[in-house]
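Model it.
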Amino acid sequence: MMIDEGNVTELMVLPPSSDRVPITDADRKGISDPLSAVFVPVGETADGLNKETCQRTLPIFDGRQRYDLQLDFKRLDKVTATTATQAR
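Modeled.
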């Protein structure tokens, strides 16, 4: 699959499947692939993760199916790590 600016420009699915709902040209526009979707895009203000950044729906196309991945803000926690020397 090749994607240019959120639009699928080339697609080859092997083996072809006939048991699924057909994908239309509209399903291939304005999408993200599943791997890129894990990188949550932030807004233009670049203020990091906040409630508004997480409240969104991402249109995903994986080459075989098109679905919406709905993100939700649950909480923001501060995480600290301890090194092996501190744990002794």
